[in-house]
Amino acid sequence: MAQTVQDGLRNLDAERYNAAETIFKQLASTAPSAENYYYLGYFYLNLQDEEGKVSSADLEKAKDAFTKGTALDAKKPDPLNRVGLATVKLLSGDRAGAKADFDLIKKDTKNKNADVIFRIGEAYSLSAKVNDPAEAVTNIQAALDLQKVKNNPDYYIAMAKAYLIKNDGGAAMTALENAANMGQKLAKIKTLMGRVWYQGKQYQKAEGFFNEAIAADPEYAPAYYYLSLLYTTFGKFNKAKENALLALKKSEATAAEKLRYIKLAFASKDYDGALSVLNEIFDAEKDPIKYRLKGYIQTEKGECAEAVKNITEFLNKAEKERHLASDWGMLGRAYACIKDDANKKLNDSLSIINMDIAIEKGDSTFDYNGAIINNYKAAKNWPKVAERLEKYISTSKKGGNATDYYNLADAYMRSRNFIKADTVYSKAIELYKDTWMFPYIQKARAKQYALGNTVDSTFSAAPLYEKYITVSTDAMKADVKNAKYFSEAYGYLGYKALLVEKNPAKATEYMNFALKYDPTNTKAQQVLQSINGGTTPPAGGTTPPNNNSPNGGAQPKN
Length: 558
What we know:
The protein is mostly helical. The chain contains 30 helices and no strands. The chain has helices spanning 5-13, 17-30, 34-45, 56-71, 79-91, 95-108, 114-123, 133-146, 153-165, 169-180, 186-199, 203-216, 221-234, 237-250, 255-267, 271-281, 289-301, 304-317, 325-336, 344-360, 368-378, 382-395, 402-414, 418-432, 438-449, 462-471, 474-478, 483-499, 504-517, 522-532. Helix 3 runs antiparallel to helix 4 (56-71) and helix 25 (438-449) packs antiparallel against helix 26. This is Tetratricopeptide repeat protein. Residues 529-558 are annotated as: Disordered. InterPro entries: CFAP70 (IPR052628), TPR-like_helical_dom_sf (IPR011990), TPR_rpt (IPR019734). One of its GO terms (cellular component) is extracellular exosome.
């Protein structure tokens, strides 16, 4: 059966590119008309990557088709093919040249050819990478005003895409509603409606429209593709995996479609499925992206040494403009998980270097800073942990939260920088707003550890221990996990009562509380014995009174 331009466009809309190309090439070959050459060139302009870029090879094919279309009538070259040639200029980066050509074409057609003006407007919204949405809207609206029979949904679809580039979801939805009212291309229109809501993070509404698109045409692959992205955003990875597979099955099983499936499967954490399909095309695929994909998958699967080789291969073979910040981040993650004790120090260093590059390049897909900190923690390099946390807090847009400050103070404690720990615990206490009491204990300890062998005759940590006791709830006091901290607090305050306030009765009360919470508190026992024996315990030394913690005043362990 003879194929028509509309058959080709239906396949193009559904991203069945092989089928569409076959139809357009056959039409141009068997019936070399201006229209058929135009749509062959138009097909190649729509072969864009995820960044909206058309390859130089496809731009050349488009140019060749449009040139043939204009050559059919040397005296009056077909205006649509002239628009096509100007669009090639636009997508090649020659905006000024394209604009001059578009203006001349409109002048030559006396600004009265609706299809010409529409295609000029569409050219400005065809690519997410090279575009001018304001020009697109102006021209498409002018074309709509010229239309005698307003039955072409493509005008409104192109306008919606322009508004999507402008991130104007309301205007995009209005344009799509106008397109939907014509009762044509509903699967494409509903999918675009879903994309508007998805871009606006209205995920439930987006899901509804994607499902409506599938109901309108169960073979429409793009709807399954966006559903997979949506479910990945939700964290519903099983559903994401199912729809990724359906997107592959409903499209053509070309290498390009398989690559797209691999990306979807990877995002939905179906690493085995992604790797299986990647291995099918790996040897034949020329695009170095195969190395990136394989390296990413291998990192997630823990095959880290091989991952390093593949990601490095991608960085070596791909043009620099194709490098992503996440490439360096994933390379750093791969180095971090290599099981090679002999080279662990080197691998850890390379891991940190590459993750720092990812941070510097602005990759926010992974908590690289947290991974670097954990690396330093595993090596017990607490000064580096503190350094990283300080940098994170100072550069974070929101600043550090209570947990960040507590972890920083803890790193200072383990680094033996007790003065800084004391200061930072104050900030953590302020941010926790008494929802967690342990920082009071830690700040009290930091004050004592900072003294070393010096006797703190004023018992400067006393207000912190008092606050810990008075603000703690009955439930906190009843929790056995907190018993040693209450014993510590009462023991310290008991020393103060005895040595500073000269109040044996109060000291006895506090020490009894200390023993109530921890009967093994030997220092509390010793103080009670000295009080009962009429003697005063020694003030000074490396333990009491300045270090009355449950572990006998020992500094924190690494």
